[in-house]
């Protein structure tokens, strides 16, 4: 089974598909389920970002069928305005995109980088916002996306020269050959230089990053008298032990955010006249309850984003004192730093959130008003779906060892908790990933068209509460992930959301290990099990190409310490269909991809062993099937169909 090109293996897979395909196709709901899933997933990201520069507002919009976002410009955040740049016109196939951009301080000149497909480098162009004219300045063979306008005169950019990255300055109206080098680190040719400007405009903040962008240094350069060759650098942080990012400055006080402490980030200020680390001050007091994610300056304030119990919390702090002023009221959502746009010069800030019920809601906040009221200026619409008719609930339950675990539950308002609801229980829970709110089309079909419940617990092994939470479900503690997931199912049953016959579980990737292990350990707890791209043979996983990377998560089978641990829960080695009465394994489906090097090896061995064991158990009526599915939509439809066929979900059918 590990030789995917073997004739016997190919024949086995063909025979398996011959069994599973008719089983799933017999569902009279198949076409409607697939059509509905495609409809839900086919939403248009009408507005991906919006920000202000000078008197103009720039927005990136898409009709949903365009390859690249189109840039619009207007004089009001509420006005779509007119098309300024349409990257789709740059090539016949729409493959050319604007990869980075920067706008002059007065908002009149737009600088942007385009990828050159043949060389892998970028070209830089300039366009006047009011006149629409393209500048004669055109710069070729730019090697990085670092681009920063300096006032209204020129741009800073990073380029590679003789195997070394250097920071250059280009003054508008001059030839590229006359660009000057303003900073370089010849003793460290691997440093990749990025830069930003102080709020006052007098200082250049230079961040040399190590390869991988996980660690950086910080230098300052005085540009109050203009940008000159070989600027004198003021060292602020000179050891590559963490990542440091500039946020804002108040005179000589420069505010940074750092991940030096792996458990919690820190926002601190440095007096550039005395940059000794011993004199650094915390700008925002430490928060022992929440996890600091990012921070941005907006007008006279700091907007700080925390993760609290697996959801984003936005707080407004005084930028001078760090005092917390207000928490912005948003739904249970995820807010990433890449969606937040603000500037110290303007009171307008914009950000987008993703929720279980919406792929994107864009807010405007006017920081000139003490109330900081939020206004929705755009929402990505899902066809034939009204999010106001549904609710998102967060509960906390106790796992086997008493640990409190959070779980999100999504369902239609007015749902009766009578233990009789079709429920889809999902997790990832591996490798330090988070279970933050996000839009998942499959769960939307479950809750909207089957009046079902979608539940998502944050089992240990993820990083929802930091590295300790991750470590609490890895290596010798991996069983905690399974216990947490099983306890989630028990909670849903005990609290009358559902019952075991109507409960389907699903996880993907290394989360698929969770469903495989839980299938063996608690077959009585579920009505259907979907194992998507799972790792099932824990005694040989490290023998496969990608498996070597998993040793840090699970431990090596060759290690005497970890072999008995792995053997105890390995899904392949622990298949045991229950004896007696009507006891049996729940209906089980293994999903894999033909392009995946490793998951077919695990999946084929797992399904073959399940079917072999079932031969000796006449009470095993529920099916064991495997599907090789190349596209996401088909895979999602198949998951729902298996639940319909085996969880009695057809009685909730509502199309």
Shape: globular
Note poorly predicted spans. none
Major β-sheet, in short?
8 strands, mixed
Overall mean pLDDT: 89
Distance between the termini: 41 Å
Number of strands: 36
Helix content: 10-25%
Nearest-angstrom radius of gyration? 28 Å
Question: How do the strands of the widest beta sheet line up side by side?
Answer: 29-30-32-31-33-34-35-36
Number of helices: 10
Class inferred from helices and paired strands:
alpha+beta
> Strand content of the residues, in percent?
25-35%
Write the layout of secondary structure elements.
Elements (H helix, E strand, L loop, with lengths): L6 H19 L4 H12 L5 E7 L2 E6 L8 E5 L7 E4 L12 E6 L5 E7 L6 E7 L10 E4 L4 E4 L3 E8 L2 E8 L8 E5 L7 E6 L5 E7 L8 E5 L11 E4 L6 E7 L2 E6 L7 E6 L9 E2 L8 E8 L2 E7 L4 E7 L5 E5 L12 E3 L2 E8 L7 E6 L7 E6 L10 E9 L5 E9 L10 E5 L13 H9 L3 E5 L9 H5 L7 H16 L8 E6 L3 H10 L6 E5 L18 H4 L8 H7 L17 E6 L6 H16 L9 E5 L3 H15 L9
Parallel strand pairs: 31-32, 31-33, 33-34, 34-35, 35-36
Antiparallel strand pairs: 1-2, 2-3, 3-4, 5-6, 6-7, 7-8, 9-10, 10-11, 11-12, 13-14, 14-15, 15-16, 17-18, 18-19, 19-20, 21-22, 22-23, 23-24, 25-26, 26-27, 27-28, 29-30, 30-32
Helix pairs in contact: 2-3, 2-10, 5-6
Account of the protein in words:
By secondary structure, the protein is an alpha+beta fold. 17% of the residues lie in helices and 33% in strands. The chain is built from ten helices and 36 strands. It has an eight-stranded mixed sheet with strand order 29-30-32-31-33-34-35-36, with helices on both faces. Strand 10 and strand 11 (164-171) form a beta hairpin. Helix 2 (30-41) crosses helix 3 and helix 2 packs across helix 10. The protein is globular, with a radius of gyration of 28 Å. 42% of the residues are buried.
């Amino acid at each position: 089974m590990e030789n995917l090109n073997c004739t016997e293996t190919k024949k086995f897979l063909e025979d398996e598909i011959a069994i599973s395909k008719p089983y799933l196709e017999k569902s009279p709901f198949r076409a409607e389920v697939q059509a509905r899933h495609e409809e839900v997933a086919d939403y248009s990201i009408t507005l991906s970002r919006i920000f202000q520069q000078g008197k103009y507002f720039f927005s990136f919009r898409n009709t949903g069928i365009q390859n690249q976002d189109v840039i619009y410009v207007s004089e009001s955040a509420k006005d779509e305005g007119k098309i300024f740049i349409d990257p789709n016109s740059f090539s016949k196939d729409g493959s050319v995109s604007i990869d980075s951009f920067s706008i002059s301080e007065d908002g009149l000149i737009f600088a942007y980088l385009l990828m050159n497909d043949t060389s892998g480098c970028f070209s830089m162009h300039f366009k006047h916002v009011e006149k629409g004219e393209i500048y004669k300045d055109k710069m070729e063979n730019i090697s990085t996306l670092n681009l920063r306008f300096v006032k209204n005169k020129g741009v800073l950019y990073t380029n590679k020269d003789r195997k070394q990255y250097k920071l250059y300055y280009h003054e508008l109206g001059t030839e590229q050959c006359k660009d000057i080098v303003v900073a370089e680190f010849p003793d460290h040719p691997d440093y990749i230089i990025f830069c930003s400007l102080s709020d006052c405009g007098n200082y250049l903040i230079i961040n040399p990053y190590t390869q991988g962008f996980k660690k950086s240094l910080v230098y300052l350069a005085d540009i109050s008298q203009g940008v000159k060759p070989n600027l004198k650098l003021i060292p602020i942080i000179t050891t590559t032990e963490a990542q440091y990012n500039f946020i804002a400055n108040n005179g000589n006080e420069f505010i940074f955010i750092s991940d030096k402490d792996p458990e919690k980030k820190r926002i601190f200020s440095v007096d550039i006249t005395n940059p000794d680390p011993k004199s650094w001050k915390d700008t925002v007091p430490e928060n022992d309850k929440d996890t600091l994610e990012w921070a941005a300056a907006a007008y006279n304030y700091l907007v700080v984003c925390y993760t609290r119990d697996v959801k984003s919390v936005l707080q407004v702090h005084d930028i001078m004192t760090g005092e917390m002023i207000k928490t912005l009221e948003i739904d249970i959502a995820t807010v990433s730093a890449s969606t937040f746009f603000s500037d110290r010069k303007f009171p307008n800030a914009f950000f987008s959130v993703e929720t279980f019920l919406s792929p994107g809601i864009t807010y405007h906040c006017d920081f000139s008003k003490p109330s900081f009221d939020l206004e929705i200026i755009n929402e990505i619409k899902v066809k034939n779906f009204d999010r106001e008719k549904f609710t998102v609930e967060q509960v906390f339950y106790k796992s086997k060892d008493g640990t409190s675990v959070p779980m999100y539950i999504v369902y239609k308002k007015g749902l009766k908790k009578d233990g009789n609801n079709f429920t889809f229980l999902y997790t990832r829970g591996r490798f330090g990933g988070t279970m933050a709110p996000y839009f998942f089309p499959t769960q939307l079909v479950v809750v909207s068209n089957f009046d079902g419940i979608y539940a998502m617990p944050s089992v240990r092994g993820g990083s929802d509460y930091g590295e300790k939470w991750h470590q609490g479900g890895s290596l010798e503690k991996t069983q905690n992930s399974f216990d947490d997931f099983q306890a989630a199912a028990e909670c849903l049953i005990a609290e009358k959301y559902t019952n075991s016959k109507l409960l389907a579980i699903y996880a993907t990737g290394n989360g698929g290990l969770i469903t495989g292990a839980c299938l063996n350990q608690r077959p009585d707890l579920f009505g259907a099990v979907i194992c998507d791209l799972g790792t099932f043979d824990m005694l040989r996983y490290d023998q496969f190409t990608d498996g070597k990377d998993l040793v840090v998560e699970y431990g090596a089978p060759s290690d005497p310490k970890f072999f008995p641990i792995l053997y105890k829960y390995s899904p392949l080695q622990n298949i045991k269909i229950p004896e007696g009465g009507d006891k049996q394994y729940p209906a089980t489906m293994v999903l894999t991809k033909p392009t995946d090097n490793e998951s077919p090896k695990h999946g084929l061995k797992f399904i073959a062993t399940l079917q072999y064991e079932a031969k000796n158990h006449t009470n095993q009526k529920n099916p064991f099937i495997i599907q090789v599915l190349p596209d996401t939509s088909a895979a999602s439809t198949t998951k729902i169909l298996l639940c319909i066929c085996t969880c009695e979900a057809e009685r909730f059918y509502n199309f």
